[in-house]
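Might I ask for a little of your time on a matter of protein folding? What I wish to show you is a protein chain and, alongside it, a tokenised description of its three-dimensional fold. I should value your view on which stretches of the chain appear to form regular backbone elements. You will find the record immediately after this paragraph:
***
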Amino acid sequence: RLIVPDVVIVEEKKVPEKEVSPLRSVLEAIYWNKTNPLATLDGETYRVGDSLQGYEIVAINKSTVLFKGGDGKVVVKDIDEDLRKYRR
């Protein structure tokens, strides 16, 4: 016979969510191939798995880079959009 003591929760502690600031970076180039895609952001070259400003690069496609923040927020940077925006 299993005897389980009564459990009383006195105080519930909340774990603070990790704040991630907005991704402020310019996607300048994508060097895409199936096995080792690369992306240049703010003059630095990154690959899938690298981190930038608290965001992890989870995918590099032919025209986009997908980031995921520590808070679960997903950000997509589009090469065409960034080039138009920052080359004016």
Notes: Helices lie at 79-86. The mean pLDDT is 84. The first helix runs from residue 79 to 86. The longest strand covers residues 55-60.
